[in-house]
Amino acid sequence: MNPPRPGEGDHAKRGGGASPHTIRPAVKHARELRRAMSLPEVLLWQQLRLRPNGLKFRRQHPIGPYVVDFCCLTSKPAVEIDGFAHDTAERAARDTIRTRFLQDNGYRVIRLPAVQVMADAVGAAGAIVGCGAWPLHHPAGGPPPRAGED
Predict the structure, then answer these.
(1) What is the pLDDT of residues 99-121, one digit of tens each?
(2) Which end of the chain, N or C, is surrounded by fewer C-beta atoms within 10 Å?
(3) Strands 77-82 and 66-72
(4) How far apart are the first and last CA of the chain?
(5) HSE, side-chain direction, 13 A CA sphere, residue 136
């Protein structure tokens, strides 16, 4: 019996044959954002990571080409914390496009001002959990079609 050719055989021992792992740009950006969270995001994450009402939230989660601050994949709230940068007209137009994309993909977008989160992170988390308790669709009926899939 001949030994395996280069790139064949037991890859774990020989270390070859597989293509290099590539990371989507949105995932790479999300990882960077997790390392550099703003203070309002950190305060809100301290509340949401406790899984209030049994809802599991993710922070800086990529959805399509966008990265939302927080989301829950079961009840589909997508939380955005808006600071001063969101007060410009250009940013408001981009936020509208982003919101439309998220809603077309079954997410309920919740926008909170950063000052509100700074003043009462516990209350902000409670409001988010309250929205998460009433999903947009009934799970028995299945999720809504994704954008472009009618």
Answers:
(1) 999 999 999 999 999 999 999 99
(2) N
(3) antiparallel
(4) 55
(5) 19
Pairing of strands 77-82, 57-63: unpaired
Is this structure's pTM higher than 0.90? no
All domains in the chain, ordered by first residue: 39-132 (3.40.960.10)
Q: What is the pLDDT of residue 90?
A: 79
Q: Alpha-carbon distance 53 to 68, whole Å? A: 21
Residue 122 falls in which region: left (phi positive, over 0), alpha (psi -120 to 50) or beta: alpha
The conformation of residue 109, written as its DSSP 8-state character, comes to E
- pLDDT one-digit tens code per residue, 43-98: 999 999 999 989 999 999 999 989 999 999 998 999 999 876 656 677 888 999 99
Residue partners of 6: CB distance under 8 A and separation at least 6: 16
The tokens for 54 are 């049994």
| Contact (Cβ atoms closer than 8 angstroms) between residue 106 and residue 136 | yes
CA–CA distance from 49 to each of 68, 119, 132, 148 (Å)? 15, 19, 14, 33
